[in-house]
Please model this.
Amino acid sequence: MSEAKHTPGRLTLVDIYADHEIRTADGLLLAVLDARQRANAKRLIACWNALEDLPQDALVGGWTRAGLEAYGKRMEEQRDELLAELTRLVEVIEAQGYEVKGARALIAKATGSAA
Model:
């Protein structure tokens, strides 16, 4: 039997009259809570949402050095790809005679160079 997948996306705590509900980003009702459960849910939802982009294997395998290094490497690769694309787009826009000072400042900040 294969393991079920968790509900993707962020969760929200919704207060409707005297009821407290946990819902997915698309509105699916996951639970109705009493006051104490609401207090616990508030903390659990904050953790759930904070870890949204962390791969499941990093959570299941624990916070191992190798797992964190692999995750960090993937984030750095993604940052580099996004920075390269932003740089390319800025060059295209500037070639058309427009200024993009904000984007240039972000590129400089990310690369440690002068804007």
